Each structure stands twice: as C-alpha cells, then as structure tokens.
Amino acid sequence: MRVFPAAALVLAAAMTSALAADDALSPQANAAYLAANAKKPGVTSAQGIQYRVIKTGNGKQPDRHECATVYYKGNLINGQVFDQTQPGSPATFPVSGVIKGWTIALQMMHSGDEWELTIPANLAYGHRGAGGVIPPDQTLVFDVTLLKVSEPVEGQCS
Asked: 114 lies in a domain?
C-alpha cells in the first residue's frame, strides 16, 4: 500500500513538470518572446521574421531556385535545441525547400552572413508542429551562417 502513494507523488510531479514545460511554450509565452525580441538592440523585422546580424558577409545572395549551404542551430523559445549541424558538416538544401521563414531570410542574406533568426509559428511549422520534436504553434530561433550559394545540378542540391 505504501508504494501506491509514492507512485502517485511521482506521477503528480511529472504532470506538474509537463504543465510547466507547456506554459513555457504557450501561445502567450511565444507572443511575449516575439514582442520582447523585437525591442532588442540590432533586431530588424522584415516580411514577418525578426533577425539580428551577427556577422556581415559580402558574398552572393541566393534566389529561391538556388541551393544554400549553411551551418545552423535551431531552438525553441525555452532554449531547447531541436536540430543543428555539426562542425565540419554543413547542410545544403534548396532555398525554397525549407520553412517559409528560412526562405525569406536566406534571400536577404549574403554568403558569409551569420544571423540570428526568430521565426513566428505561421512562417515555421504552424499548427502541425514537426516530427514530435517541435510542438504546434512555436516560434523558432535559429543561428544561421550562410556559407555558400550554388546552382542545383540536375535539379538537386548537394
């Protein structure tokens, strides 16, 4: 009989922790994050995204039909990293083959740029979230370095 109350306490603690995590990623928390971020020094808003230039490059600007090679780190507003490239292993993809907020940002960047991107849910994964890693309706924060812009070869980025 003593095991049941202990198990109930563990379950209650887990539920409380889950609720706290939900509060940190609530619609109100996302809206507050976007509002506070917009007021930070150096943050610019354009076409629905917010960005801060960390390093300025002077290379080519990609268009939506080209390929971008990048290093990136993506996290939720609570700081939880959900995806990132590893040193020495950048990612290459079509500029138009990513979330809308990235497509917008990449077309404004030059190779050599490093930006912090803050992308509201409607320009990210919206109501659907992504793969159980990104909950629905989340603002996403990325550190992105655009390394190279290239033409696709036979319709593919490599």
From this structure: yes
